[in-house]
Protein backbone atom coordinates (compact mmCIF):
# COMPACT_ATOMS: atom_id res chain seq x y z
CA UNK A 1 0.00 0.00 0.00
CA UNK A 2 1.21 3.54 -0.79
CA UNK A 3 0.30 6.61 1.28
CA UNK A 4 1.21 10.19 0.31
CA UNK A 5 0.41 13.81 1.23
CA UNK A 6 0.61 17.07 -0.74
CA UNK A 7 3.92 18.83 -1.36
CA UNK A 8 6.62 19.59 -3.88
CA UNK A 9 9.44 17.05 -3.61
CA UNK A 10 8.88 13.33 -3.06
CA UNK A 11 10.74 11.12 -0.58
CA UNK A 12 10.01 7.38 -0.90
CA UNK A 13 10.20 5.45 2.35
CA UNK A 14 9.88 1.65 2.27
CA UNK A 15 8.69 -0.08 5.44
CA UNK A 16 8.96 -3.89 5.59
CA UNK A 17 6.30 -4.93 8.08
CA UNK A 18 5.83 -8.55 9.30
CA UNK A 19 2.35 -9.89 8.74
CA UNK A 20 2.36 -11.57 12.17
CA UNK A 21 2.42 -8.12 13.85
CA UNK A 22 -0.70 -6.84 12.10
CA UNK A 23 -2.88 -7.95 15.03
CA UNK A 24 -0.40 -6.97 17.74
CA UNK A 25 -1.31 -4.57 20.50
CA UNK A 26 -0.01 -1.01 20.52
CA UNK A 27 3.65 -0.47 21.23
CA UNK A 28 7.04 0.33 19.70
CA UNK A 29 8.39 -0.80 16.34
CA UNK A 30 11.89 -2.21 16.69
CA UNK A 31 14.05 -3.23 13.79
CA UNK A 32 16.81 -1.97 11.51
CA UNK A 33 17.08 1.21 9.51
CA UNK A 34 18.88 0.88 6.15
CA UNK A 35 19.84 4.43 5.09
CA UNK A 36 21.30 3.33 1.72
CA UNK A 37 17.89 2.09 0.61
CA UNK A 38 15.83 4.52 2.72
CA UNK A 39 14.09 1.44 4.16
CA UNK A 40 12.98 0.27 7.57
CA UNK A 41 12.82 -3.44 8.43
CA UNK A 42 10.40 -4.02 11.31
CA UNK A 43 11.27 -7.15 13.30
CA UNK A 44 8.99 -7.03 16.36
CA UNK A 45 6.61 -4.88 18.39
CA UNK A 46 7.29 -4.00 22.06
CA UNK A 47 4.03 -3.82 24.01
CA UNK A 48 2.90 -1.42 26.67
CA UNK A 49 3.75 -1.00 29.48
CA UNK A 50 7.52 -0.77 29.28
CA UNK A 51 10.40 1.25 30.70
CA UNK A 52 12.42 3.09 28.02
CA UNK A 53 15.71 2.35 29.78
CA UNK A 54 15.05 -1.39 29.78
CA UNK A 55 14.11 -1.27 26.11
CA UNK A 56 17.38 0.49 25.23
CA UNK A 57 19.39 -1.98 27.33
CA UNK A 58 17.65 -4.94 25.66
CA UNK A 59 18.30 -3.57 22.18
CA UNK A 60 21.98 -2.99 23.00
CA UNK A 61 22.33 -6.63 24.13
CA UNK A 62 20.62 -7.89 20.97
CA UNK A 63 22.83 -5.62 18.86
CA UNK A 64 25.96 -6.96 20.57
CA UNK A 65 24.98 -10.57 19.77
CA UNK A 66 23.59 -10.11 16.26
CA UNK A 67 26.01 -7.36 15.10
CA UNK A 68 23.00 -5.54 13.61
CA UNK A 69 22.20 -1.89 14.27
CA UNK A 70 18.96 -2.51 16.16
CA UNK A 71 16.89 0.52 17.17
CA UNK A 72 13.36 1.80 17.83
CA UNK A 73 11.96 2.81 14.45
CA UNK A 74 8.68 4.30 15.60
CA UNK A 75 5.35 3.49 17.18
CA UNK A 76 2.49 1.14 16.38
CA UNK A 77 -1.12 1.76 17.29
CA UNK A 78 -3.80 -0.89 16.99
CA UNK A 79 -6.97 0.82 18.25
CA UNK A 80 -9.50 -1.83 19.17
CA UNK A 81 -11.74 0.94 20.49
CA UNK A 82 -12.34 4.46 19.33
CA UNK A 83 -9.09 6.30 18.81
CA UNK A 84 -8.14 8.53 21.73
CA UNK A 85 -6.22 11.75 21.50
CA UNK A 86 -4.22 10.89 24.64
CA UNK A 87 -2.73 7.82 22.96
CA UNK A 88 -1.78 9.85 19.87
CA UNK A 89 -0.07 12.48 22.03
CA UNK A 90 1.79 9.77 23.96
CA UNK A 91 2.99 8.06 20.79
CA UNK A 92 4.25 11.37 19.41
CA UNK A 93 6.12 12.09 22.65
CA UNK A 94 7.98 8.78 22.36
CA UNK A 95 9.97 10.26 19.48
CA UNK A 96 11.73 12.55 21.97
CA UNK A 97 12.77 9.61 24.18
CA UNK A 98 13.97 7.34 21.38
CA UNK A 99 15.90 9.61 19.09
CA UNK A 100 15.57 8.08 15.66
CA UNK A 101 15.45 10.01 12.44
CA UNK A 102 12.93 9.64 10.86
CA UNK A 103 10.28 8.57 13.38
CA UNK A 104 7.65 6.25 11.81
CA UNK A 105 4.15 6.11 13.23
CA UNK A 106 1.83 3.35 12.00
CA UNK A 107 -1.74 3.01 13.18
CA UNK A 108 -4.66 0.75 12.37
CA UNK A 109 -8.25 1.72 13.09
CA UNK A 110 -10.90 -0.60 14.52
CA UNK A 111 -12.63 -2.74 11.87
CA UNK A 112 -10.82 -0.97 9.08
CA UNK A 113 -8.64 -2.24 6.24
CA UNK A 114 -6.85 1.10 5.86
CA UNK A 115 -3.77 2.13 7.78
CA UNK A 116 -2.39 5.55 8.47
CA UNK A 117 1.33 6.16 8.16
CA UNK A 118 3.07 9.30 9.40
CA UNK A 119 6.70 10.38 9.50
CA UNK A 120 8.20 12.92 11.89
CA UNK A 121 11.53 14.67 11.33
CA UNK A 122 13.06 17.13 13.72
CA UNK A 123 15.03 19.02 11.11
CA UNK A 124 13.36 18.73 7.68
CA UNK A 125 15.63 20.10 4.96
CA UNK A 126 12.83 21.08 2.56
CA UNK A 127 9.07 20.67 2.22
CA UNK A 128 8.48 17.22 0.82
CA UNK A 129 5.68 14.94 -0.14
CA UNK A 130 6.29 11.78 1.86
CA UNK A 131 5.46 8.57 0.04
CA UNK A 132 5.29 5.32 2.01
CA UNK A 133 5.60 1.86 0.50
CA UNK A 134 4.40 -0.65 3.08
CA UNK A 135 5.64 -4.16 2.20
CA UNK A 136 4.19 -7.16 3.97
CA UNK A 137 6.51 -10.13 4.44
CA UNK A 138 6.05 -13.50 6.11
CA UNK A 139 8.62 -13.45 8.87
CA UNK A 140 8.35 -17.16 9.52
CA UNK A 141 9.12 -18.16 5.96
CA UNK A 142 11.87 -15.60 5.48
CA UNK A 143 13.52 -16.74 8.72
CA UNK A 144 13.33 -20.49 8.07
CA UNK A 145 14.03 -20.36 4.33
CA UNK A 146 17.60 -19.12 4.92
CA UNK A 147 17.56 -16.61 2.10
CA UNK A 148 21.08 -15.24 2.43
CA UNK A 149 22.60 -12.45 0.39
CA UNK A 150 25.35 -13.12 -2.11
CA UNK A 151 28.86 -12.49 -0.81
CA UNK A 152 30.93 -12.49 -3.97
CA UNK A 153 28.78 -10.14 -6.01
CA UNK A 154 30.90 -7.49 -7.73
CA UNK A 155 29.04 -4.49 -9.02
CA UNK A 156 29.95 -0.94 -9.86
CA UNK A 157 29.66 1.97 -7.41
CA UNK A 158 26.84 3.62 -9.33
CA UNK A 159 24.85 0.40 -9.36
CA UNK A 160 25.30 0.05 -5.59
CA UNK A 161 24.12 3.55 -4.94
CA UNK A 162 21.09 3.50 -7.19
CA UNK A 163 19.84 -0.03 -6.63
CA UNK A 164 16.80 0.33 -4.40
CA UNK A 165 15.55 -3.23 -4.86
CA UNK A 166 18.24 -5.14 -2.95
CA UNK A 167 16.46 -7.70 -0.83
CA UNK A 168 19.67 -9.22 0.47
CA UNK A 169 19.92 -6.71 3.32
CA UNK A 170 16.31 -7.37 4.34
CA UNK A 171 16.71 -11.15 4.33
CA UNK A 172 20.04 -10.92 6.11
CA UNK A 173 18.53 -8.73 8.83
CA UNK A 174 15.75 -11.22 9.54
CA UNK A 175 18.11 -14.22 9.38
CA UNK A 176 20.59 -12.73 11.87
CA UNK A 177 17.87 -11.74 14.37
CA UNK A 178 17.42 -15.26 15.68
CA UNK A 179 18.16 -14.15 19.25
CA UNK A 180 15.31 -11.67 19.11
CA UNK A 181 12.84 -14.41 18.19
CA UNK A 182 13.80 -16.72 21.08
CA UNK A 183 11.57 -14.89 23.58
CA UNK A 184 7.84 -15.54 23.69
CA UNK A 185 4.91 -14.38 25.77
CA UNK A 186 5.58 -17.05 28.42
CA UNK A 187 8.90 -15.48 29.42
CA UNK A 188 8.98 -13.51 32.69
CA UNK A 189 11.21 -10.75 31.36
CA UNK A 190 10.29 -7.05 31.47
CA UNK A 191 10.05 -6.85 27.66
CA UNK A 192 7.02 -8.32 25.88
CA UNK A 193 7.40 -8.74 22.11
CA UNK A 194 5.27 -9.82 19.17
CA UNK A 195 6.99 -11.70 16.37
CA UNK A 196 6.56 -14.94 14.47
CA UNK A 197 7.36 -17.06 17.55
CA UNK A 198 5.73 -14.90 20.20
CA UNK A 199 2.98 -17.50 20.75
CA UNK A 200 5.64 -20.02 21.77
CA UNK A 201 8.96 -21.22 20.39
CA UNK A 202 8.37 -24.22 18.15
CA UNK A 203 8.75 -27.45 20.13
CA UNK A 204 10.90 -25.63 22.68
CA UNK A 205 10.31 -28.10 25.52
CA UNK A 206 10.90 -31.16 23.34
CA UNK A 207 13.99 -29.60 21.78
CA UNK A 208 15.50 -28.70 25.15
CA UNK A 209 14.82 -32.17 26.56
CA UNK A 210 16.37 -33.78 23.50
CA UNK A 211 19.42 -31.52 23.78
CA UNK A 212 19.91 -32.45 27.43
CA UNK A 213 19.46 -36.17 26.76
CA UNK A 214 21.46 -36.30 23.54
CA UNK A 215 24.82 -35.53 25.20
CA UNK A 216 25.16 -38.71 27.33
CA UNK A 217 23.46 -40.81 24.67
CA UNK A 218 25.90 -39.60 21.99
CA UNK A 219 28.87 -40.19 24.32
CA UNK A 220 27.75 -43.75 25.06
CA UNK A 221 26.98 -44.40 21.41
CA UNK A 222 30.36 -43.05 20.31
CA UNK A 223 32.15 -45.28 22.82
CA UNK A 224 30.25 -48.38 21.70
CA UNK A 225 30.82 -47.58 18.03
CA UNK A 226 34.53 -47.06 18.56
CA UNK A 227 34.70 -50.38 20.41
CA UNK A 228 32.84 -52.25 17.66
CA UNK A 229 34.92 -50.53 14.96
CA UNK A 230 38.15 -51.56 16.66
CA UNK A 231 36.93 -55.16 16.82
CA UNK A 232 35.88 -55.12 13.15
CA UNK A 233 39.26 -53.70 12.10
CA UNK A 234 41.23 -56.30 14.02
CA UNK A 235 43.45 -58.75 12.20
CA UNK A 236 41.36 -61.73 13.27
CA UNK A 237 38.61 -60.81 10.81
CA UNK A 238 41.12 -60.48 7.96
CA UNK A 239 41.91 -64.20 7.82
CA UNK A 240 40.34 -66.21 5.03
CA UNK A 241 37.26 -67.89 6.57
CA UNK A 242 36.02 -64.83 8.51
CA UNK A 243 36.82 -62.34 5.75
CA UNK A 244 34.98 -64.50 3.18
CA UNK A 245 31.91 -64.82 5.42
CA UNK A 246 31.92 -61.08 6.20
CA UNK A 247 31.99 -60.21 2.49
CA UNK A 248 29.25 -62.65 1.47
CA UNK A 249 26.61 -62.19 4.19
CA UNK A 250 24.08 -59.41 3.63
CA UNK A 251 23.63 -58.99 7.38
CA UNK A 252 27.27 -58.07 7.90
CA UNK A 253 27.11 -55.59 5.04
CA UNK A 254 23.94 -53.95 6.43
CA UNK A 255 25.44 -53.75 9.92
CA UNK A 256 28.47 -52.01 8.40
CA UNK A 257 26.20 -49.44 6.73
CA UNK A 258 24.31 -48.82 9.97
CA UNK A 259 27.56 -48.36 11.86
CA UNK A 260 28.62 -45.69 9.37
CA UNK A 261 25.24 -43.98 9.75
CA UNK A 262 25.48 -44.03 13.55
CA UNK A 263 28.98 -42.56 13.39
CA UNK A 264 27.69 -39.72 11.20
CA UNK A 265 24.79 -38.99 13.56
CA UNK A 266 26.79 -39.21 16.79
CA UNK A 267 29.66 -37.11 15.42
CA UNK A 268 30.25 -33.88 17.37
CA UNK A 269 31.30 -32.04 14.22
CA UNK A 270 28.84 -29.36 13.23
CA UNK A 271 27.32 -29.49 9.75
CA UNK A 272 29.16 -27.10 7.45
CA UNK A 273 26.27 -26.41 5.09
CA UNK A 274 22.63 -27.16 4.50
CA UNK A 275 23.40 -30.31 2.48
CA UNK A 276 25.25 -31.97 5.36
CA UNK A 277 22.51 -30.97 7.79
CA UNK A 278 19.80 -32.46 5.58
CA UNK A 279 21.88 -35.64 5.14
CA UNK A 280 22.19 -36.07 8.91
CA UNK A 281 18.48 -35.43 9.36
CA UNK A 282 17.55 -37.93 6.63
CA UNK A 283 19.79 -40.61 8.15
CA UNK A 284 18.37 -39.96 11.63
CA UNK A 285 14.74 -40.19 10.47
CA UNK A 286 15.57 -43.29 8.41
CA UNK A 287 17.08 -44.97 11.49
CA UNK A 288 14.06 -44.09 13.63
CA UNK A 289 11.56 -45.44 11.09
CA UNK A 290 13.69 -48.52 10.48
CA UNK A 291 13.87 -49.34 14.20
CA UNK A 292 10.13 -48.63 14.67
CA UNK A 293 9.25 -51.03 11.85
CA UNK A 294 11.67 -53.61 13.27
CA UNK A 295 10.07 -53.40 16.72
CA UNK A 296 6.62 -53.83 15.15
CA UNK A 297 7.87 -56.91 13.29
CA UNK A 298 9.41 -58.32 16.47
CA UNK A 299 6.16 -57.79 18.41
CA UNK A 300 4.25 -59.57 15.65
CA UNK A 301 6.66 -62.52 15.64
CA UNK A 302 6.58 -63.09 19.41
CA UNK A 303 2.80 -62.84 19.60
CA UNK A 304 0.67 -66.03 19.57
CA UNK A 305 3.78 -68.24 19.21
CA UNK A 306 4.35 -67.34 15.57
CA UNK A 307 8.03 -68.34 15.89
CA UNK A 308 6.99 -71.93 16.59
CA UNK A 309 4.55 -71.87 13.71
CA UNK A 310 7.26 -70.69 11.33
CA UNK A 311 9.65 -73.38 12.61
CA UNK A 312 7.00 -76.08 12.10
CA UNK A 313 6.31 -74.79 8.57
CA UNK A 314 9.94 -74.53 7.53
CA UNK A 315 10.75 -78.28 7.50
CA UNK A 316 7.74 -79.29 5.33
CA UNK A 317 8.50 -76.46 2.91
CA UNK A 318 12.14 -77.60 2.61
CA UNK A 319 11.00 -81.20 2.02
CA UNK A 320 8.50 -80.05 -0.62
CA UNK A 321 11.20 -78.08 -2.46
CA UNK A 322 13.56 -81.06 -2.34
CA UNK A 323 10.83 -83.37 -3.66
CA UNK A 324 10.11 -80.97 -6.54
CA UNK A 325 13.83 -80.89 -7.39
CA UNK A 326 13.95 -84.70 -7.35
CA UNK A 327 10.98 -84.85 -9.73
CA UNK A 328 12.69 -82.32 -11.98
CA UNK A 329 15.89 -84.37 -12.07
CA UNK A 330 13.93 -87.55 -12.81
CA UNK A 331 12.29 -85.70 -15.71
CA UNK A 332 15.70 -84.57 -17.01
CA UNK A 333 17.07 -88.14 -16.73
CA UNK A 334 14.32 -89.38 -19.03
CA UNK A 335 13.30 -87.76 -22.32
CA UNK A 336 12.68 -84.08 -21.41
CA UNK A 337 10.32 -82.42 -23.92
CA UNK A 338 11.02 -85.23 -26.39
CA UNK A 339 14.73 -84.38 -26.66
CA UNK A 340 17.23 -87.16 -27.30
CA UNK A 341 19.90 -86.85 -24.62
CA UNK A 342 23.16 -88.74 -24.10
CA UNK A 343 21.93 -91.41 -21.72
CA UNK A 344 25.25 -92.19 -20.01
CA UNK A 345 26.06 -88.53 -19.24
CA UNK A 346 22.42 -87.85 -18.34
CA UNK A 347 22.41 -90.67 -15.76
CA UNK A 348 25.74 -89.58 -14.28
CA UNK A 349 24.66 -85.96 -13.86
CA UNK A 350 21.20 -86.90 -12.57
CA UNK A 351 22.53 -89.26 -9.90
CA UNK A 352 25.19 -86.76 -8.91
CA UNK A 353 22.59 -84.04 -8.28
CA UNK A 354 20.18 -86.48 -6.58
CA UNK A 355 22.91 -87.41 -4.12
CA UNK A 356 23.41 -83.73 -3.28
CA UNK A 357 19.67 -83.35 -2.64
CA UNK A 358 19.77 -86.39 -0.35
CA UNK A 359 22.62 -84.85 1.62
CA UNK A 360 20.75 -81.58 1.88
CA UNK A 361 17.56 -83.22 3.21
CA UNK A 362 19.60 -85.10 5.80
CA UNK A 363 21.23 -81.85 6.90
CA UNK A 364 17.87 -80.08 7.25
CA UNK A 365 16.39 -82.87 9.35
CA UNK A 366 19.51 -82.93 11.49
CA UNK A 367 19.07 -79.21 12.21
CA UNK A 368 15.30 -79.41 12.77
CA UNK A 369 15.46 -79.55 16.62
CA UNK A 370 17.41 -76.27 16.70
CA UNK A 371 15.47 -74.32 14.07
CA UNK A 372 12.94 -72.84 16.52
CA UNK A 373 15.70 -71.63 18.82
CA UNK A 374 17.60 -70.15 15.87
CA UNK A 375 14.48 -68.33 14.67
CA UNK A 376 13.83 -67.07 18.21
CA UNK A 377 17.24 -65.40 18.37
CA UNK A 378 16.93 -64.18 14.80
CA UNK A 379 13.65 -62.47 15.72
CA UNK A 380 15.47 -60.49 18.41
CA UNK A 381 17.64 -58.92 15.72
CA UNK A 382 14.56 -57.04 14.46
CA UNK A 383 15.08 -54.55 17.30
CA UNK A 384 18.12 -53.32 15.32
CA UNK A 385 15.82 -52.36 12.48
CA UNK A 386 13.68 -53.81 9.75
CA UNK A 387 16.60 -53.67 7.30
CA UNK A 388 18.69 -55.95 9.52
CA UNK A 389 15.80 -58.42 9.75
CA UNK A 390 15.37 -58.35 5.96
CA UNK A 391 19.12 -58.89 5.48
CA UNK A 392 18.96 -61.91 7.80
CA UNK A 393 15.98 -63.20 5.79
CA UNK A 394 18.04 -62.87 2.61
CA UNK A 395 20.88 -64.83 4.19
CA UNK A 396 18.45 -67.53 5.38
CA UNK A 397 17.08 -67.86 1.84
CA UNK A 398 20.66 -68.15 0.56
CA UNK A 399 21.38 -70.94 3.07
CA UNK A 400 18.16 -72.81 2.33
CA UNK A 401 18.84 -72.68 -1.42
CA UNK A 402 22.54 -73.44 -1.17
CA UNK A 403 22.07 -76.74 -3.01
CA UNK A 404 20.51 -74.86 -5.94
CA UNK A 405 23.54 -72.57 -5.96
CA UNK A 406 25.83 -75.62 -6.02
CA UNK A 407 23.87 -77.11 -8.93
CA UNK A 408 24.21 -73.83 -10.81
CA UNK A 409 27.96 -73.66 -10.19
CA UNK A 410 28.49 -77.27 -11.28
CA UNK A 411 26.44 -76.83 -14.45
CA UNK A 412 28.07 -73.49 -15.29
CA UNK A 413 31.61 -74.82 -14.86
CA UNK A 414 30.93 -77.93 -16.92
CA UNK A 415 29.25 -75.91 -19.65
CA UNK A 416 32.11 -73.37 -19.75
CA UNK A 417 34.71 -76.13 -19.97
CA UNK A 418 32.96 -77.67 -22.94
CA UNK A 419 32.57 -74.32 -24.70
CA UNK A 420 36.24 -73.56 -24.09
CA UNK A 421 37.28 -76.99 -25.39
CA UNK A 422 35.11 -76.66 -28.52
CA UNK A 423 36.52 -73.20 -29.30
CA UNK A 424 40.11 -74.50 -28.95
CA UNK A 425 39.44 -77.52 -31.15
CA UNK A 426 37.68 -75.31 -33.71
CA UNK A 427 40.86 -73.24 -34.02
CA UNK A 428 42.78 -76.52 -34.48
CA UNK A 429 40.64 -77.33 -37.58
CA UNK A 430 41.48 -73.93 -39.07
CA UNK A 431 45.22 -74.25 -38.39
CA UNK A 432 45.18 -71.63 -35.64
CA UNK A 433 46.14 -71.52 -31.99
CA UNK A 434 45.88 -69.08 -29.11
CA UNK A 435 49.15 -67.30 -28.28
CA UNK A 436 49.14 -66.92 -24.49
CA UNK A 437 52.11 -64.55 -24.35
CA UNK A 438 50.85 -62.10 -26.98
CA UNK A 439 47.14 -62.65 -26.24
CA UNK A 440 46.15 -63.23 -29.86
CA UNK A 441 45.38 -65.99 -32.37
CA UNK A 442 48.37 -67.07 -34.52
CA UNK A 443 48.78 -69.57 -37.36
CA UNK A 444 50.12 -73.02 -36.53
CA UNK A 445 50.82 -76.24 -38.44
CA UNK A 446 49.60 -79.54 -36.92
CA UNK A 447 50.61 -83.09 -37.85
CA UNK A 448 48.18 -85.91 -38.72
CA UNK A 449 47.98 -87.41 -35.19
CA UNK A 450 47.09 -84.07 -33.64
CA UNK A 451 44.35 -83.46 -36.20
CA UNK A 452 42.92 -86.98 -35.68
CA UNK A 453 42.78 -86.67 -31.86
CA UNK A 454 41.37 -83.17 -32.17
CA UNK A 455 38.61 -84.42 -34.48
CA UNK A 456 37.64 -87.18 -32.04
CA UNK A 457 37.55 -84.84 -29.06
CA UNK A 458 35.59 -82.19 -30.98
CA UNK A 459 32.97 -84.79 -32.02
CA UNK A 460 32.61 -86.11 -28.47
CA UNK A 461 32.23 -82.65 -26.92
CA UNK A 462 29.82 -81.52 -29.63
CA UNK A 463 27.44 -84.46 -29.06
CA UNK A 464 27.63 -84.11 -25.25
CA UNK A 465 26.94 -80.37 -25.39
CA UNK A 466 23.07 -80.53 -25.56
CA UNK A 467 22.86 -82.61 -22.37
CA UNK A 468 25.17 -80.26 -20.48
CA UNK A 469 23.43 -77.18 -21.89
CA UNK A 470 20.01 -78.44 -20.76
CA UNK A 471 21.17 -78.99 -17.18
CA UNK A 472 22.91 -75.62 -17.21
CA UNK A 473 19.76 -73.88 -18.52
CA UNK A 474 17.46 -75.47 -15.91
CA UNK A 475 19.70 -74.69 -12.95
CA UNK A 476 20.37 -71.18 -14.25
CA UNK A 477 16.62 -70.49 -14.25
CA UNK A 478 16.31 -71.84 -10.71
CA UNK A 479 19.23 -69.70 -9.58
CA UNK A 480 17.73 -66.69 -11.33
CA UNK A 481 14.48 -67.18 -9.40
CA UNK A 482 16.36 -67.15 -6.09
CA UNK A 483 18.36 -64.08 -7.14
CA UNK A 484 15.15 -62.21 -8.07
CA UNK A 485 13.68 -62.88 -4.61
CA UNK A 486 16.88 -61.74 -2.90
CA UNK A 487 17.05 -58.74 -5.21
CA UNK A 488 13.58 -57.61 -4.17
CA UNK A 489 14.59 -57.88 -0.51
CA UNK A 490 17.77 -55.90 -1.12
CA UNK A 491 15.80 -53.30 -3.08
CA UNK A 492 13.51 -52.79 -0.08
CA UNK A 493 16.54 -52.51 2.21
CA UNK A 494 18.19 -49.93 -0.05
CA UNK A 495 14.91 -48.02 -0.28
CA UNK A 496 14.69 -47.71 3.51
CA UNK A 497 18.39 -46.78 3.75
CA UNK A 498 18.51 -44.17 1.01
CA UNK A 499 15.00 -42.67 0.89
CA UNK A 500 15.20 -39.03 2.13
CA UNK A 501 12.18 -39.31 4.40
CA UNK A 502 12.94 -36.13 6.32
CA UNK A 503 13.15 -34.11 3.12
CA UNK A 504 9.93 -35.62 1.81
CA UNK A 505 8.06 -34.86 5.05
CA UNK A 506 9.52 -31.37 5.09
CA UNK A 507 8.49 -30.84 1.48
CA UNK A 508 4.92 -31.86 2.23
CA UNK A 509 4.51 -30.00 5.54
CA UNK A 510 6.94 -27.07 5.46
CA UNK A 511 8.25 -26.57 1.97
CA UNK A 512 9.79 -23.19 2.81
CA UNK A 513 12.38 -24.96 4.98
CA UNK A 514 13.84 -26.42 1.76
CA UNK A 515 14.37 -23.01 0.14
CA UNK A 516 18.01 -22.80 1.15
CA UNK A 517 20.81 -22.00 -1.30
CA UNK A 518 18.65 -19.51 -3.17
CA UNK A 519 20.33 -16.46 -4.59
CA UNK A 520 18.07 -13.57 -5.66
CA UNK A 521 19.71 -10.93 -7.82
CA UNK A 522 17.97 -7.85 -9.22
CA UNK A 523 18.07 -8.04 -13.01
CA UNK A 524 16.57 -4.62 -13.78
CA UNK A 525 15.61 -1.39 -12.06
CA UNK A 526 11.93 -0.57 -12.13
CA UNK A 527 10.99 3.07 -12.62
CA UNK A 528 7.84 3.00 -10.53
CA UNK A 529 8.10 2.67 -6.77
CA UNK A 530 4.78 0.86 -6.63
CA UNK A 531 6.07 -1.86 -8.99
CA UNK A 532 9.11 -2.25 -6.77
CA UNK A 533 6.92 -2.75 -3.73
CA UNK A 534 4.85 -5.38 -5.53
CA UNK A 535 7.95 -7.31 -6.66
CA UNK A 536 9.46 -7.15 -3.16
CA UNK A 537 6.21 -8.37 -1.64
CA UNK A 538 6.09 -11.38 -3.96
CA UNK A 539 9.70 -12.33 -3.26
CA UNK A 540 9.54 -11.88 0.50
CA UNK A 541 6.25 -13.63 1.00
CA UNK A 542 6.82 -16.69 -1.15
CA UNK A 543 8.78 -19.76 -0.42
Low-confidence stretches: 1-9, 150-165, 524-543
Q: Give the strand tally.
A: 11
Query: What structural class results from the helix and strand content?
Result: alpha/beta
For the CA atoms, what is the radius of gyration?
Answer: 39 Å
Helix coverage percent: 55-70%
Beginning-to-end CA distance, first to last residue: 22 Å
Q: Tally the helices.
A: 16
Overall mean pLDDT stands at 76
Counted up, domains total: 3
Sheet with the most strands, sense and barrel status: 9 strands, mixed
Transmembrane segments: 213-232, 283-302, 348-367, 374-401, 407-429, 450-474, 480-505
Keywords: Membrane, Signal, Transmembrane, Transmembrane helix
GO biological process, one term: GPI anchor biosynthetic process
Protein name: Phosphatidylinositol glycan anchor biosynthesis class Q
